[in-house]
Amino acid sequence: MTTNTDQDNAVDIVPHEEFYFSDGSVVVILENTALRVHQSVLARHSEVFSGMWDVPQPSTRETYDGCPSVFLSDSLEDFVDVIRVLYDPL
After folding, report:
1. pTM surpassing 0.90?
2. CA 71, CA 11: separation in Å to the nearest integer?
3. pLDDT average per 10 residues of sequence, the chain (90 residues)
């Protein structure tokens, strides 16, 4: 699957095998891997994510699989570790 950005610059993105929820509301993309998670969970536990969605969004924002998408330059492994703590704390 590709993002809906300029097709000349389309990047092949693969869904994460563990953290790609069908009812997720936002897609976070790192290292060409998409994590479809819940915006409310991220916002509840992170001031950065909370603030990200408090700011008015442009009418032509990027989407992936019908959800708003955010590209991060963080390590996929590190971000998955954070998501795992949020979703499976035990």
Report:
1. no
2. 12
3. 48 94 97 96 89 72 90 96 91
